[in-house]
């Protein structure tokens, strides 16, 4: 089977690596040669293995679209694609194009699916492998893989420890289903699910008057990007590494500062924060940062 891969970064790299290990025929890959002044690991692996590689943005060019069709590929695998891909490309391989989304579709469509699942207090999420079409995350479902969201999972831990390996295994299982013939195409229920946009910094400001569960979920959803934050004594503080405790006081009040972390009250409980940062300073242990800013027990974050 002749395969094209569209993607970037370590997800596409690891998928390519595993496909090559299995002896699959990769006829070409498309991705960004450079991301933020750094060479992309996916394209670098393709070059090392002497696989024809091209800029993914070129797929908007008619000449490149025509060239893509001449590859006569059987299937395209999309692994971390953030650019719009023309329908003509999606439909031009013999068996179509499959991609992944890091949620249980139709829930949490959009670019920040992992953050929103945590923010909304979900107990589970997963990866959906689906047939790409022009609709954002709206194609027919090929398969799903489920994982739990633990109480202290963050955006970072949930992605790297749980979803990343599910993405690779899910794409490989999806390819196997396609190769076996008559693969599933389950329609998404248009009346169910959700779409959320980017989980941006302005959405990550903490309201200490909210229930401790909501505060804890917000911090986890923004850890490590874009970082939940709050304001105290004219300082904007980014807040990371949260865990819940039952002890409470006035919302936003610092209950204790210890080597274990900084305990801050919300409604019906408190959060123990282990790491903080401010502008122009690196992330550091929470007690060290507050000490450097001369912030003490009893002072309050803005609610």
**What is the overall number of helices?**
8
Poorly predicted runs: none
Largest sheet: 7 strands, mixed
What is the global morphology?
A: elongated
Structural class: alpha/beta
Mean pLDDT over the full residue set: 96
Strand order in the largest sheet: 5-2-1-6-7-8-9
Can I get a quick summary?
With 303 residues, the chain is α/β, with parallel strands linked by helices.
List keywords for this structure.
alpha/beta
Please characterize this protein's 3D structure.
The protein is an alpha/beta fold and 303 residues long. 28% of the residues lie in helices and 28% in strands. The strands form three sheets. A seven-stranded mixed sheet has the order 5-2-1-6-7-8-9. Strands 10, 11, 12, 13, 14 and 15 form a six-stranded antiparallel sheet that branches. Helix 1 packs parallel to helix 2 (41-48) and helix 1 (9-21) runs parallel beside helix 6 (155-180). The longest helix is centred in the middle third of the chain and has 26 residues, at 155-180. It is elongated, with a radius of gyration of 22 Å.
Topology:
Elements: E1 2-7, H1 9-21, E2 25-31, E3 34-35, E4 38-39, H2 41-48, E5 53-55, H3 62-70, E6 75-79, H4 87-90, E7 97-101, H5 113-119, E8 124-131, E9 141-148, H6 155-180, H7 212-221, E10 228-232, E11 235-245, E12 254-258, E13 261-266, E14 269-277, E15 284-285, H8 286-292
Parallel strand pairs: 1-2, 1-6, 2-5, 6-7
Antiparallel strand pairs: 3-4, 7-8, 8-9, 10-11, 11-14, 12-13, 13-14, 14-15
Helix pairs in contact: 1-2, 1-6, 5-7
């Amino acid at each position: 089977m002749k395969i094209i891969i569209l993607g970037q970064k370590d997800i596409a790299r690891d998928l390519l690596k595993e496909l090559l290990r299995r002896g699959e025929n990769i006829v070409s890959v498309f991705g960004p040669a450079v991301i933020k002044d750094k060479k992309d690991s996916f394209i670098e692996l393709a070059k090392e293995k002497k696989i024809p590689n091209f800029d993914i943005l070129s797929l908007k060019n008619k000449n490149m679209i025509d060239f893509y069709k001449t590859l006569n590929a059987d299937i395209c695998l999309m692994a971390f694609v953030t650019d719009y891909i023309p329908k003509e490309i999606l439909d031009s391989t013999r068996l179509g194009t499959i991609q992944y989304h890091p949620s249980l579709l139709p829930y949490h469509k959009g670019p920040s699916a992992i953050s929103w699942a945590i923010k909304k207090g979900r107990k589970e999420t997963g990866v959906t492998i689906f047939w790409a079409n022009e609709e954002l995350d709206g194609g027919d479902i090929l398969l799903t893989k489920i994982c739990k969201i633990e109480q202290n999972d963050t955006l970072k831990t949930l992605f790297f420890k749980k979803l990343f390996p599910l993405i690779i295994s899910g794409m490989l299982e999806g390819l196997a289903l396609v190769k076996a013939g008559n693969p599933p195409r389950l329609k998404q229920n248009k009346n169910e699910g959700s779409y959320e946009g980017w989980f941006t910094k302005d959405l990550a400001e903490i309201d200490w008057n909210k229930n401790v569960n909501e505060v804890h979920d917000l911090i986890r959803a923004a850890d490590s990007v874009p970082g939940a934050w709050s304001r105290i004594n004219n300082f904007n503080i980014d807040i990371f590494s949260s865990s819940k405790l039952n002890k409470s006081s006035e919302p936003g009040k610092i209950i204790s500062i210890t080597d274990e972390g900084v305990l801050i009250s919300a409604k019906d409980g408190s959060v123990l924060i282990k790491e903080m940062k401010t502008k122009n300073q690196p992330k550091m242990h929470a007690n060290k940062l507050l000490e450097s800013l001369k912030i003490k027990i009893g002072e309050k974050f803005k609610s």
